[in-house]
Write a structure and sequence with these properties.
The protein has 5 helices and 3 strands; from the N terminus they run H-H-H-H-E-E-E-H. By secondary structure, the chain is of the alpha+beta class. The chain folds into 3 domains: 1-47; 48-110; 115-169. It has a 3-stranded antiparallel sheet, sandwiched between helices.
């Protein structure tokens, strides 16, 4: 009996240790994500002077609208609309930040060699991208994208030099 109790206690201790380790890993990953978001926000704020006013304006406008709707509805709804407005305002402010940051990143990549391949790699969904299936010495390239619609070739560079590459890949 003593052996079975000891083995059960050892298993419990091992499970507890594994859970604590998993929890610590999750906390570290969450902290890293928060620090990355903060760094991205700081960089974007330096580049985009309108970012902060837009985010604050959207937040305040949504909170004010939800409070006004709560007051108009009356009763307990008044108190429930305040947290709802804060959450929705934060969500909209975060969406504004994400969209403006994405726009800024794509604006920076525009005109640089390899920008098309980079943009294709960031496609959402089930797309398989093969960058640079054909290229010239002038940094013109053809990229292959495979998805539900079929095979798509994307040319990057001078149209006069890319057309023969596209014809060769077909």
């Amino acid at each position: 009996m003593a052996k079975s109790r000891n083995s059960a206690e050892v298993k419990k201790a091992a499970n507890r240790a594994a859970k604590e380790e998993a929890k610590a890993t999750r906390k570290a990953a969450a902290k890293q994500r928060r620090s990355q978001l903060w760094q991205a926000f700081q960089m974007q704020r330096k580049e985009d002077t309108r970012l902060l006013p837009y985010m604050i304006g959207a937040f305040v406008l949504i909170v004010a609208a939800s409070v006004a709707a709560g007051i108009f509805a009356g009763g307990f709804t008044t108190y429930m609309m305040i947290p709802l407005g804060v959450v929705l305002g934060g969500l909209v402010a975060f969406i504004i930040f994400g969209r403006r940051a994405q726009k800024s990143v794509y604006r920076k990549a525009e005109g640089q060699t390899g920008a098309a391949a980079w943009a294709l790699e960031n496609l959402r969904g089930k797309w398989r991208v093969t960058p640079g299936v054909a290229a010239t010495g002038h940094f013109d390239a053809v990229h292959r994208v495979i998805g539900r619609p079929g095979v798509i070739f994307v040319g990057e560079g001078s149209p006069a030099r890319v057309k023969p590459l596209l014809a060769q890949e077909k």
